[in-house]
Amino acid sequence: MKNLAVLGATGSIGDSTLSVCRHNPDLYNVQFLYAAKNVDKMLSLCMEFQPAYVALSDEGSSQQLQTLLQQNNLHSQVLPENEVLTLLASVEIDSVMAAIVGAAGLKTTLAAVYAGKEIFLANKESLVMSGALFIDAVKKYGATLWPVDSEHNAIFQSMSASLQKDIGACDLNGEGVSKILLTGSGGPFLNTPLSEFEFITPEAAIKHPNWSMGPKISIDSATMMNKGLEYIEARWLFNTNKEQLQVIIHPQSVIHSMVQYQDGSVISQMGNADMRIPIAHVMGGERRIKSGAKPFNFFASDNFTFFEPDYDRYPCLNLAIQACYQGQHATTTLNAANEVAVQAFLDKRIKFTEIAVVVEQVLNQLNTQTASTIAELLHIDKEAREHTIQVINRGLIC
Ligand code: NAD
Ligand code: MG
Q1: Domains of the chain with CATH codes
Q2: Is the beta carbon of 101 within 6 A of some atom in ligand 1?
Q3: Cα(13) to centroid of ligand 2, in Å?
Q4: 14 lines ligand 1 (CB under 6 A)
Q5: What confidence tens digit (pLDDT) does each residue in 100-124 have?
Q6: Quick one: pLDDT band at residue 252, thresholds 50, 70, 90?
Q7: Rounded to whole angstroms, what are the CA distances from 206 to 162, 218, 235, 352?
Q8: Is the C-beta atom of 149 inside 6 A of ligand 1?
Q9: What are the helix (H) ranges across 239-353?
Q10: pLDDT per position as a tens digit, 138-193
Q11: CB of 12 shorter than 6 A to ligand 1
């Protein structure tokens, strides 16, 4: 039985993770639950899972939770935020589900890496932000990294055991891989006329046709920035070069990505669009476990279709791919600018089409710095956020 920490426990991946725990009560002991401020949901999770430790990053919410736990005679210890990293590094935690959304997930994910833990990586933004430094730390501290993102998990499942063991440093050519094919549905606006894009509302953008996810990743899926972040994530996880990584639109979201080999074989992982499938894969480790997901029904499915992405429709995807080859400062800046722009769109302060315009402006204006430490990356992240806010506030979008 492994002791599990769920970071981002009240979110969409948190829900799916805890659902897999319910299906496998003998495999994981839910030891620590961490989230931002959803007190009611955390209370009900504490009632059900009785974790030894719990924390909310918002101080007021943390105090409320403490009171409610006492009133309900529950014994989970509420940790102050500054003790979270120490707990993650301690012997009380074996495995960490890193599922906080955005750059906010970097600190805790890295703490788990530095402590050599088993990490189930959902928080793609932490890898986009810190790339080579993250991968080097995984090697140096002997952490075990399992990709949770459905595409990366599919790629991982479609690889040989020797490539799987070498995550972060895969010798794709040596193992006969010619290409990694990263699939994406194209989101809710795949067939919307481009002339209507500037009128897209947050409510419409959040409704993904195939997946149920948190608000930020849902908007990223609509702009396909999500696929761009995943492109960068794949570049680091699987050590690809430009010729070895390609994005393919597959609107049905049944094939979750593919690996093409030099002999012409293509191996894919398929299934329903249910994050419990990749989560159960990583939590099962060497063996297959129950996920609670429905088996895929081939006779009730649409035809599978595939085509190349149109960058006029998805400028964010293009920006991310370009940033991937510009260097670490560019992907850190891209991630920060995107997070601020997506929030501004959700708050109805900018239009859907302005997300890409804002990100591009920030990238063009801030792309000269270098970064070789996490502290320098955090500085770039901070500057990029401040600059993005200025661009939005001053209405500098042109
Ligand atoms: P979500 O918005 O549903 O949940 C986010 C969680 O993070 C919540 O529990 C929230 O309380 C917590 N959180 C936010 N800021 C925090 C902070 N400062 N400190 C502690 N906790 C904080 O998001 P989600 O859809 O579950 O996505 C989580 C991560 O997983 C993202 O990085 C996303 O890209 C990735 N991911 C999600 C999916 C999916 O299907 N939802 C698929 C692949 C990857
Ligand atoms: Mg994904």
Answers
A1: 2-147 (3.40.50.720), 326-398 (1.10.1740.10)
A2: yes
A3: 11
A4: yes
A5: 999 999 999 999 999 999 999 999 9
A6: very high
A7: 39, 5, 27, 11
A8: yes
A9: 276-284, 315-326, 328-346
A10: 999 999 999 999 999 999 999 999 999 999 999 999 999 999 999 999 999 999 99
A11: yes
Do the beta carbons of residue 317 and residue 227 sit within 8 Å?
yes
Ligand 1 mutation pick, 61, 84, 101, max ligand atoms within 8 A of CB: 101
Helix (H, G, I), strand (E, B) or coil at 236: helix
Around ion ligand 2, which residues have CB less than 5 A away? 149-151
Compute the distance between CA of residue 4 and CA of residue 194 in angstroms, rounded to an integer: 45
Query: Which residue's alpha carbon is at the smallest distance from atom 2 of ligand 1?
Result: 214
pTM of the model as a whole: 0.97
Tokens 């299934």 sit at which residue? 271
Tell me which residue has its CA closest to atom 40 in ligand 1.
213
Q: Is 129 a pocket residue for ligand 1 (Cβ < 6 Å)? A: no
Is residue 259 a contact partner of residue 266, using CB atoms and an 8 Å limit? yes
Q: What residues have CB less than 8 Å from 319, skipping those under 6 apart?
A: 225, 228, 334, 356, 359, 360, 363
pLDDT digits (tens, 9 = 90+) for 73-110: 999 999 999 999 999 999 999 999 999 999 999 999 99
Write the pLDDT tens digit of every residue in 223-232.
999 999 999 9
What CA–CA distance (Å, rounded) separates 287 from 386? 46
Q: How far is the CA of 302 from the centre of ligand 1 (A)?
A: 30
Are residues 10 and 35 in contact, defined by beta-carbon separation less than 8 angstroms?
yes
Instruction: Please tell me the predicted confidence (pLDDT) of residue 397.
Output: 60
- Give the span between the Cα atoms of 112 and 114, in whole angstroms: 6
Instruction: Say which ligand is closest to the CA of 54.
Output: 1
Q: For residue 99, how far is its CA from the centre of ligand 1 (angstroms)?
A: 5
Determine the distance separating the centroid of ligand 2 and the alpha carbon of 83, expressed in angstroms. Answer: 31
Cβ 17 vs Cβ 24: under 8 Å: no
